[in-house]
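Checked the freezer inventory, then went back to the computational side. Two predictions to log before the end of the day. The first one is the construct we discussed on Monday; recording sequence and tokens without edits.
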Amino acid sequence: MIIEQNIWGVTPEGEAIIIYTMKNALGSEVQLSNIGAGVVSVKYADRNGNIDDVVLGYKEPMSYFGDSAASGKTIGRVANRIAYGMMTIEGVEYRLEVNSAPNHLHGGTKGFANCLWESRVETNRVVFSLVSEDGDQGYPHEVTVEAIYDFDDENNLEITYLAKSDGTTPVNLTSHIYWNLAGEASGSVLDHELKLNASRVLESDERQIPTGRLLPMKGSAQDFTDWNRLGKDIGSIFNHIDLFRGHDHFFVVDGWQKNILGEVGELRCEKTGRLIKVLSSQPGCTVYTGNWLAGGCPTTKSGGRYADYAGVAIACQTHPNAVNNPDFPSILLHEGELYCNKIVFQLRNY
């Protein structure tokens, strides 16, 4: 494994934006940035040996600050939505920024995805670290976080998230990579096929908050229990798919066990033969088909603009609004505890 480190740019405050390039023996490479501890590029071969970049991203480093898509970045303190920006922890009510009306989304406009992280190379891995102070974006207590990236000679990209807090606070971290297995500038992913190790999907209300009900996927417009095309039922009224302009829903992994790495699902592209297997220690994933990419993406790596559905995110995490629903797995991190979750993307062909 070769890891190169270069200055990619400088912020208006004079801080260095670093880009790391991890290269393996297969000729594949992963590029990372300290903006949001994010993935800016993943290049690997298709079934015919052609190497393409299969991750959405931008031409200029400063474009990664404040992008509504949160492209490739680490989301926190809490991924997904908190209803109405309100939560009560140990009897104390907290009001958070409402940045996706009427909800709080992805930790706020200055959440982890829009922070410049400290970074370093440790032998064959890249480690990003961040200190989120008490009161940051309205959240209680100080949290220290690490995002650790490993990439091996078998094309396995592993992300490990670690966090500690000096008091009780919610933590729900995920990676917001958008995949297009035909190449980042190739157009829509609605022809990609998805299969999930999940037989249930959370029912969402019209504001994209879970009702608490679990809907069976089998036979529905969100039946990914076997291979199904992402665009097949994109206009269905089932679970408000039409209202959300596509899939933006949380799927509950079957047989999930806390702290155990398990199978989440697979994404494939018939045109190129690329396939990604996803594993995680999280209880589920949000599948987002890039329904609003056209409205919030800066100039892309290829010099254009992404249209809606140009990429799909499979964001492994705990249930949306879990801090307000005692029936969901808890996202509360207590003093003295270690938050540790992994996501693995296995880059393959078929």
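The second is the one RB wanted added to the comparison set:
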Amino acid sequence: MTAKLIDWFQRHRRELPFRGCGDPYFILVSEMMAQQTRMETLVPYFERFIARFPTVQALAAADEAEVLALWAGLGYYSRARSLHKAAKLCGGAVRDTYEGLRALPGVGDYTAGAVASIAYGLPCPAVDGNVRRVCARLLAADSGDVSAWILGLMAEAPPRLVTEALMELGALVCVPSSPKCGDCPVSGDCRAFLEGRVTEFPAKRLKPAKRAEDRAVCIVRDGEGRVLLRRRAERLLHHMWEFPSEAQLLADGFAVERDPSPLGTAKHVFTHIIWHMTAYRARIAYQELPDNYQFLADLNQIALPSAMKAWKNLIIAEDAVIMGT
């Protein structure tokens, strides 16, 4: 089975900018970006990121604000902060053992296994959602650690090829819905396929319902036309800048007066929460502007999360009208 899997991968693998390069830094960046991100979304971000930070040393020396700016739009910004911290801890070279990689911030079992096996050829299984699904179907088993089984494959072929082949099979053929069993190189070895039970694996798990949160977003300008931004202390979008909500302004000691007519509505969906946002023009009164607030004239100077995209575009369009452009 291993030989068939590797042969299929070498003939059908996608050409990706970090594949086959052998650069541990490129692989670490790509795997950190790949967490919760589709490949077609990841690639252009990866190319821009590497163009600006071509080495682990360059990333370690960078300012966090610039790292976040290049990450803006990918979401899950804690990944960018962890990657930045990891680069600083690596001391000029990405660590070359599973244990060393696993100790880096933001690097879990899967990412450590992926970098160790792909970059360094170490027999370290990397089990993400795609690989877990492939293994569940091949073994017709939905529980248990599949690492020992993957190690058996790595004894028969280079660990790098085994890791990438399993990932690719899960991404292109052994997909969650309507798997392409007719295109699968190892369908003859797949117990779920042979038993006619492919759709039973992996067992579907009910996801908890996302919590909905209504937010009255306040667009506040000062006498010079600059826009008020707030730097978040909350865990979600931690340290990212946002247009503050009315509730946040009141909690931070501002007196708030907002117009009754809304400017518009928008929705942003996170992993566990949905923001239903309505924007209003507002005026505030305060004794002294807190450190986590600032007025900004050019919104392109700062990294704003995707959740704020609608209001950023609205303000940029307003400024363009004011400037007559």
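For RB: The CA atoms of residues 110 and 148 lie 14 Å apart. DSSP finds 14 helices and seven strands in the chain. Let me know if you want it refolded.
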